[in-house]
Specification:
This protein is about 40% helix and about 15% strand. The strands form 4 sheets. A 7-stranded mixed sheet has the order 2-8-7-6-5-3-4, with helices on both faces. The chain has a 4-stranded antiparallel sheet with strand order 9-10-15-14. The structure holds pyridoxal-5'-phosphate.
Length: about 400
C-alpha cells in the first residue's frame, strides 16, 4: 500500500522523541515534572459538567445541525459580541470538534494548491501542517526577540510575496505568550486590506491576559469583518480540552463552505459537549477569572525562578500559559557530558538528568528556545525549575 503524498508530506512531530522518553521514564516510576502540557491542569467547573449530565438525561444524544445547535451558536454569537466586540449571526458561526478543527475547516475552505499563507514564527505547529494539508505553502515571518515576538506590519511587509493569499494571526500566542498591541493590530488591519488578504485570527487564549495588557480583536476593526475568520473555543478558558468544542465565525458564504466541509467529514460535534459549552459561555464567568489569577501567580513565580538560571532567557508572557525560554547561550557548551547543539539536545539532557520535560522550539520553527508550560501547580513549578537550576547552575 502506498501512502498518499499528502500523508507522506506531514512532518512527524519533533516533540515526539521527548514525549516518548518522558512517558518511558514515568512508566519506570520516575517522578518526571511535565512542563509540556498545552492544557489547563484545572478540572472543568461543576456547573458545566452538570449541564452535560442533564443533556444526557434529557436525551440530547442525537445528531444536531452540522454547524452546531441553535442554542450554542446563539450563545457564541453573544459571547463573541461581548468579548471581541463584533456581532455575528448564528448562520455565520460553525461549531467544530475543537478550535484545531475550526482552523482546519477554514484553511480547507480558503486555500488552493500553491497558495501562500503568511505564518509568524515561532508558530503553533498545527498551522504549518494544516496549510500544507490544504495544498498551500507557509511563508514564514520570523519575529524579533527584541520586541518580545510581537508581530509588526514591518515583519509582514518584509516577507510578503506574490501568491500570498492570507495571514494567520495568533494573539495571545502559543508558544510565546506575545500579545500584539491594539495599535499594531490596527496597522496590520490596514495593511491586510491594502494587500487584499484574508486573516485567520486564532484568539483561543484571549481570556488569559496578564498585567495591564489589552487584546484587540482584528475582526472588530473597520473593513475586517468581511475578510476575517475569527477562531476560538472553550478548551483553554474553561478547562475543557477533552470536550472538543471550538468555533469559527466568518461571513455567511464562508461559514456555509466550512459547514459543508465539516458535513462530509465529522458532521456535528458531540451533542452533549455542545450542551456543556452553552453552560460554559452563558453561566458564571468568575470561574475563568479564578483560573486566570492562579495562572498569573504561577507566571510570576516561574519568571523569578527561571531568571536565576545561567544561560536561559525567559520571555515574560502577556497571555496564554507558556514561557518561551531562549537558550542560545548554551549552544556549543557541554552539559552532563553532552555537547548542546540546540534546544532539542538541551531538552533531552534536562529530561534525563533533571527529570523535567519541556518542549524544544524546533517544533515551533525555532531551534534555540524551548516552551515551558506553567499549567501546573506552584509546587511542581518550584520543584521542576529548582531541578533545572541545580543542573544548569552547577
Ligand atoms: C494556538 C492554539 N490554537 C488552537 C488550539 C486548539 O485548541 P482546541 O482544538 O482544543 O480547541 C490550541 C491548543 O493547543 C492552540 O494552542
Amino acid at each position: 500500500m502506498q501512502l498518499s503524498q499528502r500523508a507522506q508530506a506531514l512532518s512527524p512531530s519533533p516533540t515526539m522523541a521527548i514525549d516518548a522518553r518522558a512517558k518511558a521514564l514515568l512508566a519506570e516510576g520516575q517522578d518526571v515534572i511535565n512542563f509540556s502540557a498545552g492544557e489547563p491542569d484545572f478540572d472543568t467547573p461543576e456547573h458545566i459538567k452538570a449541564a452535560a449530565v442533564e443533556a444526557i438525561r434529557r436525551g440530547d444524544t442525537k445528531y444536531t445541525a452540522v454547524a452546531g445547535t441553535v442554542a450554542l451558536r446563539r450563545a457564541i454569537a453573544d459571547h463573541v459580541a461581548e468579548v471581541a466586540g463584533v456581532r455575528y449571526a448564528p448562520e455565520e458561526i460553525v461549531v467544530s470538534v475543537g478550535a484545531k478543527h475550526s482552523l482546519y475547516n477554514a484553511l480547507m475552505a480558503l486555500v488552493n494548491p500553491g497558495d501562500k499563507v503568511l505564518l509568524p514564527v515561532p508558530y503553533w505547529v498545527s498551522y504549518s501542517e494544516q496549510i500544507r494539508l490544504a495544498g498551500g505553502e507557509p511563508v514564514f515571518v520570523p519575529l524579533s526577540p527584541s520586541r518580545q515576538y510581537r508581530l509588526t506590519v514591518e515583519d509582514l511587509e518584509a516577507h510578503w510575496q506574490p501568491g500570498v493569499v492570507g495571514l494567520i494571526l495568533n494573539s495571545p500566542s502559543n508558544p510565546t505568550g506575545a500579545v500584539v498591541e491594539p495599535r499594531e493590530i490596527e496597522r496590520i488591519a490596514a495593511w491586510v486590506q491594502q494587500k487584499d488578504l484574508w486573516v485567520i485570527s486564532d484568539e483561543i487564549y484571549h481570556r488569559l491576559l496578564y498585567g495591564t495588557v489589552r487584546h484587540q480583536s482584528i475582526a472588530a476593526l473597520d473593513g475586517m469583518r468581511e475578510r476575517t475568520i475569527y477562531v476560538n473555543g472553550v478548551s483553554k478558558a474553561y478547562a475543557m480540552t477533552g470536550w472538543r468544542i471550538g468555533y469559527a465565525a466568518a461571513p455567511k458564504a464562508l461559514a456555509a463552505a466550512m459547514a459543508g466541509i465539516q458535513s462530509q467529514s465529522t458532521s456535528n460535534p458531540t451533542s452533549v459537549a455542545q450542551a456543556a459549552a452553552v453552560a460554559a459561555l452563558t453561566g458564571p464567568q468568575d470561574v475563568v477569572e479564578t483560573m486566570r489569577q492562579e495562572f498569573e501567580r504561577r507566571r510570576a513565580l516561574a519568571y523569578d525562578l527561571l531568571s536565576g538560571i545561567r544561560g536561559l532567557r525567559p520571555v515574560l508572557p502577556d497571555g496564554a500559559f507558556y514561557f518561551w525560554v531562549e537558550t542560545d547561550a548554551w549552544v556549543g557548551r557541554t552539559l552532563a557530558g553532552t555537547v548542546i547543539q540546540d534546544a532539542d539536545s538541551l531538552a533531552a539532557v534536562l529530561l534525563d538528568q533533571a527529570l523535567v520535560a519541556v518542549v524544544p522550539g524546533s517544533g515551533f520553527g525555532v531551534p534555540h528556545a524551548f516552551r515551558l508550560s506553567f499549567a501546573t501547580s506552584q509546587e511542581r513549578i518550584r520543584e521542576g525549575i529548582s531541578r533545572m537550576a541545580r543542573l544548569l547552575n552547577a
